[in-house]
Amino acid sequence: MLEVKVDLLKNRLYITIGRIQRNKVKNSSDIVEKAVSKLEPGFTCLSRIIDARDIDQNDIEEIKKIQMMLAKSGMAKAVRVGVENGKLLLNRVGKNTEYIASDATTLEEAEKMLDEWVNNNGS
Question: For 34, which DSSP code?
């Protein structure tokens, strides 16, 4: 399950990753890219990872492609919340993609971190 939403007022992308069956991440980059096209450069991203089981190498390549696209599209800051193994996986995959991300323990904390970052950086 992949859910992508956009908040135009906050210039923020929301990505929720649920249980992903093997090889079901394929072409998710198209969905994310379409959502990103509605945002201005300097946008922020909140990723919520509900379940990261069953991700294989093909899925990892698609996730890396998404992370690289987000960085190249002008994403300024990302915060991840959810299961620890999912955050760890996304941190490891995004290590060399110029993907700027922090971890939070709750959705409220993640929103607050992004709002404060925006307020402090004038975006």
Answer: H
**How does pLDDT run across 90-119, given as a tens digit for each residue?**
767 666 666 678 889 999 999 999 999 999
User: Can you give the residue ranges of every domain in the chain?
Assistant: 2-121
Question: Scanning the structure block, which residue is given the tokens 């394929």?
Answer: 26
Q: What tokens does 17 get?
A: 């990753």
pTM (two decimals): 0.85
Residues 12-30 as b or e (16 or more Cβ within 10 Å = b) = bbbbbbeebeeebbeebbe
Distance CA 85, CA 4 (A): 21
Which CATH architecture group holds 2-121? 2-Layer Sandwich (3.30)
